[in-house]
Write a structure and sequence with these properties.
338 residues, alpha/beta, Quinone Oxidoreductase, Chain A, domain 1, Rossmann fold, 2 domains, six-stranded parallel sheet, 15 strands, 26% helix
């Protein structure tokens, strides 16, 4: 008998997410009869992304559909097509898609909020989930399409040791910018300076963030790529140069809170500074994924872009891996091979 294993939401987290918020379930699996436009997938690799935490909140607090109690958790995954009634996807093809944390599932690609994309022939699925993943594409489009960097600009990145943040730091350096990174812990800051190319890495856990930013940005900050929000956002707003741009990618500081993510305390700083704040989602740029991947591939081949990831093995390890993201117990993009 074939089993379909799942990790489902046992109850909504109150504060920090814990492994006890998830429950393991297994059921006998019988391949379903597909409807036109559907595909049956076998999940092979899942990505532990902080944004999933938003989907664990109640409907009024979730920005892309709350996961119901007892429903499988979902997130970006590398999947293999087992059966297809969709003209664009064939049996045996590997894809990246938002999929449930379970072995087998039926997807409707045309109705997906995040585009379902084929993994190009010759690209390792691990690379597809790390180097060429939606996280890397998020960094690329957030920086270049929203931030619009120019050589000589100062770019500040929060959550800089994370999957998106580390890519932003490297891409900003490639664009000829001076990079200031904010991360938690001396080891991460050392890695950002020695391996990633940040000119200054600030440990927000031990430093006076406002004072450290003032020292690191005497001419102000031209672009702030924000993955965290909260106190880091406020400190960055106070250091923005005129006509600066704030790229809103995530609000990690608020993910475990019962309150909405707060904005800057003094909006007049943005008015008189002529500061632009803009949020985005990577799916907005799906038509341009191929060109972005081509750039990332070229930079990696030239040794200008490094891919750091943390691989865990085993379906049973998914909840532990996900919780590790919020405790800083990961080294780069964290994926689980099922």
């Amino acid at each position: 008998m074939t089993l379909n294993r799942s990790w489902v939401l046992a109850h909504r987290p109150e504060g920090a997410v814990r492994t006890s918020d998830f429950a393991y379930r297994e059921e006998a699996f019988d391949p379903p009869t597909l409807q036109e436009g559907e595909i049956l997938i076998h999940t092979q690799i899942i990505s532990c992304a902080p944004t999933i935490r938003n989907w664990l909140n109640p409907p009024g607090r979730s920005y892309r559909g709350a996961i119901g109690i007892g429903e499988p958790i979902r997130g970006m995954a590398a999947v293999e097509v087992m059966a297809s009634r969709h003209a664009s996807f064939a049996v045996g093809q590997w894809l990246t898609a938002v999929a449930p944390w379970q072995d087998y599932a039926v997807l409707r690609p045309d109705a997906a909020a995040v585009p379902v994309k084929a993994i190009e022939e010759g690209i390792d699925p691990v690379d597809a989930m790390t180097l060429y993943s939606p996280n890397s594409l998020t960094a690329y489009f957030g920086l270049f399409a929203v931030g619009e960097p120019k050589p000589g600009m100062t770019v500040l990145v929060s959550g800089a040791a994370g999957s998106v943040g580390a890519m932003v730091c490297q891409m900003a350096r490639i664009a000829g910018c001076r990079v200031i990174a904010v991360a938690g812990g001396p080891d991460k800051c050392r890695w950002l300076e020695e391996e990633v190319g940040a000119e200054v890495a600030i440990d927000y856990r031990s430093a006076d963030l406002s004072a450290a930013l003032e020292d690191a940005s005497p001419g102000g900050i031209n672009i702030f790529f924000d993955n965290v929000g909260g106190d880091v956002l406020q400190a960055a707003v106070d250091r923005m140069a005129p006509h600066g741009r704030i790229v809103l990618c995530g609000q990690l500081a608020a993910y475990d809170s019962n309150s909405p993510a707060a904005g800057p305390r003094d909006m007049m700083k943005l008015v008189y500074g002529r500061i632009r704040m803009q949020g985005f989602v990577v799916g907005d740029y799906a038509d341009d994924y191929a060109s972005a991947i081509a750039s990332i591939r070229r930079w990696e081949a030239e040794g200008r872009l490094r891919n750091r990831y943390d691989v865990r093995d085993g379906f049973e390890r998914i909840p532990d891996a996900f919780v590790d993201i919020f405790n800083g117990r990961n080294a780069g993009t964290l994926i689980v091979r099922i």
